[in-house]
Amino acid sequence: SVANVGLESVPIEVEVDVAEQGFPGFTIVGLASKAVEEARERVKTAIKNSGFDFPPKKITVNLAPADLPKVGVAYDLPIAIGILAASQQCPILNELDSIFYGELSLDGSLRATKGVLLVGLFARRSSIFVPVESANEAAVVDGIAVFPVRNLKQVVDHLTGAKKMEVLKHVEVEELVGEELVDFDLAEVAGQEMAKRALTIAAAGGHNLLMWGPPGTGKTMLARTLPGILPPLLPAEALEVTRVYSVSGMISAGETIIRRRPFRAPHHGVSAAGMIGGGSNPLPGEVSLAHLGVLFLDEMAEFPRTVLEALRQPMEDREVEIVRAAGHVRYPAGFSLVGAVNPCPCGYLGHPRRECKCTDKQIRKYRAKMSGPILDRIDLHVKVPAVETNKLTAESSSPSLSSRERWWG
Description:
The chain has 18 helices and 19 strands.
């Protein structure tokens, strides 16, 4: 099988011993996490419900190398196949170089499992047996045989030759990416010409952007148009983004690849770990989920200062390194930051029709939440003044991709 450490995959050998002597039992060794240890009950029940015999003997499963922590539920399938092979119920001599990866349900069926794309990229020139709901992720990898598995019995029938499985058809990434309709088109926004100009400059140069203005001036709507004027994802870029979403388990069942540039808009209550990534088994945070796309911070001054300060290193290095006692992982973080902020706590400083009730001290304290080093990393600062609401949007006679076509041809 395979262990995914960050965006890298490490081969894991699943060794199974069914001893004739000793008290009956089922032990998993090799720095297995709680989820892996719970596989004992899932595997045992799945084997029985699939019509096979679970040997009433002393069973020992070793996940090697033993010094690498094993996390997740993807070891269910290889453990079950190993037990059936060790008890002479399933031959695997012809599939020793194959990778088995997936979570078992109690009835023996396989559930969608995250990280399948990484498994496919690791298993170049090999065969992989993965859940049918996640198999499309690996279909874009050339040179491997992807077997979409519905249940445990289907794998055993294939290995015994009773009923061979069909290999999933390979799909070229180039066929999946390209022009798509955008959700928010800059061509549909009327007014705010200065902000629109700043957005196009940010898109062309990969700059970070901060929009200052009172509530209701269209800052959020303007920010949501940025992915629509960025160039379409290249095949290599789409694969890079999909790797991040695959290891996060955020690819829908049956989906093959991420086709659009990401747009992430976390709430201002997000934690530093949620923004940067973290956990005992570090997963990508918002900065990595926005890789090659847009990270939008609405009401930026309301974010905890610790969260904003944590953005310094990703904004500079375009990657994030998460260090834990068990090791460290790196995730890409090449995002374009777009921030929206009110000019003061009440939001109406300089508003032509509303009176600001904030004191100078309150305004200074409010703006001090965004430190100099963070503001220095934002190339473009633009004011978004108040306008009539009915002038913010207008019906466009241009097609939905008009803005992208204008700037990128």
